[in-house]
């Protein structure tokens, strides 16, 4: 991988600073080590981390000129994944946790860009944390110095938002002349090419529903833990379900 393909995304900490145990060897990338032992510095088995995004047009969610957040998912480096890994940490008070950690700005951002099209935002965040966040082994409570309850929850949501801010799907497509339009259709190769410019030259996964663009997954391998580590773009572990041509990109409907 050339240096231009390596993208380091540093957390833009707006809340508490993570107190994760330091990693002396951050050079070992997840999914690329012969060792299969999970540690607080090596993401395993969920070594591929996916920053996933929605384009919800009807019913619409979020600003008309932005995609919205789906989540951050650990994948077992082969397209399979674990889910709901720790029922004891399946918290149902995400907003209260973030407020307690003085992450009000984060919570406000999530209410705009991490939104549910069928239920409350709180339910969506609880689902994403319980199903995916609890399966990221490098943010378990045991990986913290002087751990305080739910500390990893705020770190998880902050990291997802920071990754999302560096992956402006709407702008990348718009710069390539790919904009929401009821009368136009687009080529899959053009969409993938436009988005690869955000992702170290590697195409993300592009998902469709009824031939309409609706999801994007950016795959990463990580050196170090999932909060302080270096995120390196990786190739997708699944093929797009979109047609090669005739892809619709519908404008968001009026709320």
Q: Report the count of strand segments.
A: 7
Order of helices and strands: EEHHHHHEHEEEE
Terminal CA distance: 44 Å
Helical fraction: 10-25%
Poorly predicted sequence stretches spanning 5 or more consecutive residues: 1-16
> Residue-averaged pLDDT, rounded?
92
What Rg is obtained from the alpha carbons, in whole angstroms?
A: 18 Å
Task: Give the total of domains.
Answer: 1
User: In percent, how much strand structure appears in the residues?
Assistant: 15-25%
Largest sheet: 5 strands, antiparallel
According to CATH, what is the topology? Ribonuclease Rh, Chain A
Morphology call: globular
The CATH homologous superfamily name equals Ribonuclease T2-like
- Quickly give the CATH architecture: Alpha-Beta Complex
- Sheet/helix structural class: alpha+beta
Look at the structure and give the CATH class.
Alpha Beta
Helix count, per DSSP? Answer: 6
GO cellular component, one term: extracellular region
Family: Belongs to the RNase T2 family.
EC number: 4.6.1.19
InterPro entries: Ribonuclease_T2_eukaryotic, RNase_T2-like, RNase_T2-like_sf, RNase_T2_His_AS_1, RNase_T2_His_AS_2
